[in-house]
């Protein structure tokens, strides 16, 4: 079985080891060493990266036979002595998150009997799933307590115990595995069985910050960031906040109110605009009716009109239909794909919905409506093509 140097020396970044086996798997090789400082993915903590004999290590696998396989592309022979170097920035980040998780989980457990059911460490954030729901103020209290432990810089030590010995100890969580256990002791605060890598003192965690939370199953999923990740998130939020601040010219705590005010203003402007559009529509409709062609007892109005949105176009068509009972109307926007409104006056005698369907069948798009008024969009044709086809349909 591979001897795991990270169990006792979590700060070690380089080591020499003998190659026990090297097997090709696909494009890569799986190298097993007599000992390693590379952490394999397990217990919610991702694997280490780095180099082995100068070749990049792209994955580290904890095999069921107790060996650790290093996935790399180098060439190795059994018996070779090779040097391994782990990517310290990535490892230390994992150590901060993992130790922070022990402390935060213990804080929730001690203060609110909220047990951690599972732990996941992603590339930008880590989460714990608590077995019961916690309130925002409880989360803040647990966060305070966890950071108090961080700032007291308590020792974090690892030791081994038999299952029998462990059974008599106040472990936070029942160990899931049998056989000898590796116990992580955050002095006078938390004792847990864990195979991961941890900082030597809680001060190394730096800070534990809760990034957010959500209801999850019958409990709460809490996202947290420790040390460097908390600083990274702080920078990201600071930059986002100052970008918003430039536009709003208010202090961060006034932003929500400022945005609400802007939304109210925008709604009120829209209402004013609609009112004016409707008034304008009445005048424009009179001009459209005057320009319409008198054919077959109908006043045919087919036109592409610039500068009106869907609602304005509808107001225009409705106003024209009200002004001229024998009007049959098809109005389009000038952009492609075009919006369309079909309408008729009281004596128009067409089915607006059917005209719209015929247009959509020919030019694509969709929409619907009733015999007196139909609306649609997505018509893929030029204004000239649309107006010509509509004229034919309105005369049917
Ligand atoms: Zn751990």
Question: What is shown here, in short?
Answer:
The chain is an alpha+beta fold. The protein is 36% helix and 31% strand. It has 8 helices and 21 strands.
Write up what this structure looks like.
The strands form five sheets. Strands 2-3-7-6-5-8 form a six-stranded antiparallel beta barrel. The protein has a six-stranded mixed sheet with strand order 16-17-18-19-21-20, sandwiched between helices. A four-stranded antiparallel sheet has the order 9-10-15-14. Helix 1 packs across helix 2 and helix 7 crosses helix 8. The protein has helices at residues 88-112, 136-151, 163-167, 227-248, 255-291, 310-323, 352-363, 383-395; strands at residues 3-4, 14-25, 28-33, 35-36, 50-52, 55-62, 68-72, 81-86, 116-121, 126-130, 156-161, 181-186, 190-193, 208-216, 219-226, 293-295, 298-305, 327-333, 338-344, 366-369, 373-379. Strand 12 (181-186) and strand 13 form a beta hairpin. The chain has 396 residues and is of the alpha+beta class. Helix content is 36%, strand content 31%. The mean pLDDT is 94. It is elongated. The longest helix is centred in the C-terminal third of the chain and has 37 residues, at 255-291. Residues 98, 102, 184, 194, 196, 198 line the site of zinc ion.
């Amino acid at each position: 079985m591979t001897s795991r140097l990270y169990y006792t020396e979590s700060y070690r970044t380089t080591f020499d080891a003998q190659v026990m086996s090297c097997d090709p798997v696909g494009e890569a090789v799986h190298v097993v060493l007599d000992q390693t400082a590379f952490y394999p993915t397990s217990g919610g903590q991702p694997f280490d990266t780095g180099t082995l004999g100068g070749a990049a290590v792209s994955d580290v696998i904890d095999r069921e036979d107790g060996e650790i396989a290093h996935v790399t592309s180098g060439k190795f022979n059994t018996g070779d002595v090779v040097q391994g170097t782990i990517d310290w920035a990535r490892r230390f980040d994992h150590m901060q998150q993992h130790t922070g998780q022990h402390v935060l989980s213990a804080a929730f457990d001690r203060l609110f009997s909220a047990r951690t059911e599972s732990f996941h460490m992603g590339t930008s954030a880590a989460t714990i799933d608590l077995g019961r729901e916690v309130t925002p103020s409880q989360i803040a209290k647990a966060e305070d307590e966890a950071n108090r432990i961080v700032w007291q810089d308590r020792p974090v030590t690892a030791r081994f115990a038999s299952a029998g010995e462990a059974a008599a100890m106040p472990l936070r969580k029942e160990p899931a595995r049998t056989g000898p256990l590796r116990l992580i002791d955050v002095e006078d605060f938390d004792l847990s069985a864990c195979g991961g890598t941890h900082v030597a003192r809680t001060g190394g965690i730096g800070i534990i910050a809760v990034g957010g939370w959500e209801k999850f199953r019958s409990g709460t999923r809490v996202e947290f960031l420790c040390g460097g990740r908390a600083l990274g998130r702080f920078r990201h939020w600071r930059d986002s906040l100052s970008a918003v601040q430039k536009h709003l010219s208010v202090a961060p705590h006034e932003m929500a109110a400022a945005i609400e005010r802007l939304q109210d203003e925008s709604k009120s402007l829209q209402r004013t605009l609609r009112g004016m559009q409707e008034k304008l529509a009445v005048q424009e409709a009179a001009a459209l009716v005057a320009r319409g062609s008198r054919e077959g007892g109908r006043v045919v109005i087919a036109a592409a009109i610039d500068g009106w949105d869907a609602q304005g176009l509808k107001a225009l068509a409705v106003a024209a239909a009200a002004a001229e009972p024998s009007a049959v109307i098809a109005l389009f926007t000038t952009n492609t794909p075009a919006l369309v409104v079909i309408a008729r006056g009281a004596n128009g005698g067409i089915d607006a919905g059917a005209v719209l369907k015929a247009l959509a069948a020919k030019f694509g798009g969709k929409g619907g409506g009733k015999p007196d008024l139909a609306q649609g969009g997505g018509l893929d044709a030029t204004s000239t093509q649309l107006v010509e086809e509509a004229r034919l349909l309105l005369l049917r």
